[in-house]
Amino acid sequence: MRDLLIAFSAALLASPVAPPAAAPTLAGTLADLHADAREPADLETLLRLQVAAGRWQDAEETIGLAAAAYRRVRSRREWALVPWHIYARTGRYEAEGATRADALARAFAELFASLPDRELAAVLPWYRADLDRLRDAQTQASEGCAGTAVDDCPRAAQLIAARQALAAWVYLMPASRPLIRAELERRFEVEDRLLIPVPGGDQVAAILIRPRNAAAKLTALMSFTIYANDEASLAEAVEMAAQGYAGMVAYTRGKGRGAGRAIPYEHDGADAAAVIDWLAAQDWSDGRVGMFSGSYNASTQWAAVKLRPRALKAIATHASNAPGIDTPMQGNVFQSFIYPWPLYTTATSGLDEINYRDHGRWAALNRIWYATGRPYRELERIDGHPNPVFARWLDHPSYDAYWQRLIPVGEEFARVDIPVFVQTGYHDGGMVGALHYLREHYRHRPDADHRLLIGPYHHTAMGQGVLPIVDGYRIDEAAQIDLRAVRMQWFDHVFRGAPLPRILNGRINFQVMGANLWRHVDSLEAMADSRMRFYLSRRREGEHLLFADTRPPTDETGPELRVDLADRRDADFQVPDGTPDMRNALVFTTPPVGERMEVAGLFRGRFEVVVNKRDLDLAVDFFERRADGRYFPLASYLGRASYMADRTRRQLLRPGRPHVLAFESQTITARQIEAGSRIVAVVGVPKRPDIQINYGTGRDVSDESIADAGEPLKVIWRPGSYLELGVRR
What we know:
- This protein is α+β, with helices and mostly antiparallel strands and 729 residues long.
- The protein folds into four domains: 2-180, no CATH class; 198-325 and 403-523, Alpha/Beta hydrolase fold, catalytic domain (Rossmann fold, 3-Layer(aba) Sandwich); 333-397; 530-728, Jelly Rolls (Sandwich), CATH 2.60.120.260.
- The protein has 21 helices and 27 strands.
């Protein structure tokens, strides 16, 4: 076996696409060693080994096992196996004497063209691959064996599997494209080169898919996006057409074939409204349009809602971005993860994947900025490439007119009288925006038909399917639902009078992690039936401070935090896996809880502080610390003190004088806390490479530098300062 592995490795390095002569024998040997695979990921590795070995029948049987395994834990993922099934059956027919083209055509007809519309639509998003990522995966697998005798390398199977994945998709994508196109045109009306006029004389590119021979006029479901990717957009439009709607994906002006200059956010509302009007005017249309999709594409829905086009009757968002609220700043604090994103989305008519994936470039940028202490506004000078969109954002650190013209604000929410459905997750950065829209809608229109579905989901759960494990947490069986199916059922309820999905029985529908159940209530406040108040105290237990119980401590002074804003010795610090970042923070903990309890909803804080500077940024993160020492994140807050009272207007602190900082968390949780666990809060001042640093001078924070650090920041919490959690007992 050693000789086979060495031969395979040498041939692979010489030609990463052409299969080494040794590969089939070696792959077969390794497949035998993986024959007892049962987990979906292990079954996929076994499948690729069997394909590499030319064991086509075995591969088809493994596909069946993998599909059954995915149905138990991640149902949407089973459709990703269909292209592999086609590839394996093509190999079998070719081995039986058919030409490769004939073998593929036959396998495609049997396994794809025979599917009902909705199943075909479920497969389509998986019938493509990112070849650059596959090449990277192959390179990483090869490097995993570097300097080691390959037969001693535990990643030999992963190396062959990665190489086989690349080889399969290098063939399958271009060879299948005309077959897919012909099948779609047989079933649907396909218009994928539309150009629709928008205000100012520009045009936006759009893809429209409609069922052929529809018996009645159609409602249109539309996504409006800056992510110009025709294959992905086609799949989304087909999904809606397969459900009997007209499906459309339209792009931000300047993207795809569209005319104009691509600028995030600024024209999306007017352009989306123009596309909605265009859809409603078509002779096949029933005059009604719904919008769907998430992340950035959720902001385009709210941008359209702000303008209230008459035909827009419902929106369904997920992982919802709210410009000026959660990106590029949260709580008026800029975060550097967003810095490469304007370049990614505007540098080309498509997407600049190569530079966006250069993680080393962006990590180096953050480190250099942090270690040198240069002003945040100089990020683009450090990078050496202009980033005009980000620079314009930095000119608007308040939630001012620039941001307010992009999405509804204030009383504009009172006029939002259409149904809204939003899905987000406890592990989703988009929860901040999702909750902003929901809370503002409820605040200004208390009877709003705005339904939230939230569970232990990640940012891309709607697209990729619910993961069985997220951030080390194995999610409850009750949370393993098909989010896309729920969304379609909601649309059918709104537009066709179908029953409301039972999982959306309340306006707030939340899965309680660890309890394996859903709850349905009418408001965020009703997620909890009581509240627990935790007073900040100076009492210690080991390295951590203890929360006081139901009464505030009687100390004359409260806990104190000092942060040397000029100290950059931690530029290369890595937070240990599974633990919070406790730098520049005070850590407060409860004693072990005596009995199981449920934490749910928002947390609140009311700090009375004395600070020696004119401003500071504050981060508060709650965790459950299990009896075994593991930390589980609950909810969080990030904000600039000078904007806590009003995000539109900065109000600086007066050094040495007491100030009240009152805030609510920007995320929510619902978690069953086990007996013996502790509730932990990390209360600190963010000072790290991936976030803007507030030196407290009172000038524009983007213009401050390490030269402004001065004496260490000192924060003293006065007695009576507290945090408050919602609980169910």
